[in-house]
Amino acid sequence: MPNTRQVVTRIAPSPTGFMHIGTARTALFNWLYARGRGGKFLLRIEDTDRERSTPQATEAILRGMRWLGLDWDGDAVSQFERAGRHAEVAQALLERGAAYKCFATQDEIAAFREAARAEGRSTNFRSPWRDADPASHPDAPHVVRIKAPRDGETVIEDAVQGTVRWKNADLDDMILLRSDGTPTYMLAVVVDDVDMGVTHVIRGDDHLANAARQSLIYAGMGWELPVYAHIPLILGPDGKKLSKRHGATGVEEYQKMGYPAAGMRNYLARLGWSHGDDEFFTDAQAREWFDLDGINKAAARFDFKKLENLCGQHIAAAEDAALLTELEAFLDATGALPLTESQRDGMARGMYCLKERAKTFGELLDKAHFILASRPIEPEPKAAKALDLVSRGILSELTPHLQNASWSRDGLEQAVNEFAESKELKLGKIAQPLRAALAGRTATPSVFDMMLVIGREETLRRIEDAAGQTGE
Length: 472
What we know:
Layout: E1 8-11, H1 21-35, E2 40-45, H2 55-68, E3 77-78, H3 83-95, E4 99-102, H4 106-119, E5 143-146, E6 153-158, E7 162-167, E8 175-177, H5 185-195, E9 200-204, H6 208-221, E10 227-231, E11 234-235, H7 251-256, H8 261-270, H9 283-289, E12 300-301, H10 304-317, H11 320-333, H12 341-354, H13 361-367, H14 369-372, H15 381-384, H16 389-403, H17 409-422, H18 427-439, H19 447-467
Parallel strand pairs: 1-2, 2-3, 9-10, 11-12
Antiparallel strand pairs: 4-5, 5-8, 6-7
Helix pairs in contact: 3-5, 5-6, 8-10, 11-12, 12-19, 16-18, 16-19, 18-19
């Protein structure tokens, strides 16, 4: 019979620092897979490392998830708070004979491994307590170990990597409970996944070997294995593991660099997964198309140019109101001053002419300088050269034509073109001093767009200011 279980995926980051871009990509894959199938996407904070786990790091993970738009179902689960449940399962494994108490000391383990190295044997510890009669157990500190099979193979059918085999002779009797009674990561992960109903474990292929070891716990408890999908890691452009030397590695850094979340989702989805030749796609398309068989086995290389290109397309395609909201979140994240009410109104009016060819919010804000600046507009040196005596005279003569113009795109173009023809001037001879007057720059949106956005009164005042400036 076909499996009709509801799909449940999860992301389980450790709160020991910022949220890595690789973790974000893994979260996205899990989110897409669940959301595209009407399933659940869960968040678990693996905070068992009490020395390194911090509330600040947990909050950074939550912020990163929210910025990326990866909503999760229910409350985030704390792994540390479930330690009692993990210990219960360890006890159940003992009762089933799938685990045992090991009283070996650290010195005894070290001596075993030293002898094994000297003899060229495996250094996997072979505990003398594995088959000991419980009646012979001393009243002493001990750990609980899984009873790994010694013969044959452990086989994992992985949705990305295919059939993966390990010789059981190479598997160790891993520790489930430490001598202080605290659970290990390997035990906690399995118990949490089972209790949370996780059907698909989609994670980095650096965890592939863990699947073999963790499968022993599933077998010992008689639990059904999840579908495993171990995805390749993200490399830098040079083919080496992505690190600080390649640029930003934390999710929040990308928000502060001005990349829109939609563009980031699109790029991360394409980083190791493909749907034909499609590069640019919406969230809805990604949810519909994403499947495990589209994930590549080979590691993906991070390419900032591709990221910027996709982000530019998403900025251009975004609804103006949504873009303005995300722009304000970008300003907040970077600690910049918030927009004033008048600046926000101007940005809302001008977004249509700002978002084309802007790859980041920083570039968009740069194009919006004519909106954000206030009179008197201080021209940059290059723009100031366009405001020589002749050009200022042209602006003075143009002013009455603009005063009487219909304040629409067609009306403004008609007024400026008729004035240019009457003076036998090319449009560029008028446009350049206009740019300098309206924005104080030489590279701006169309002068007609700028006039429409800032309005008749502000346009005329800026032109009047520029026309009255003292030339060199």
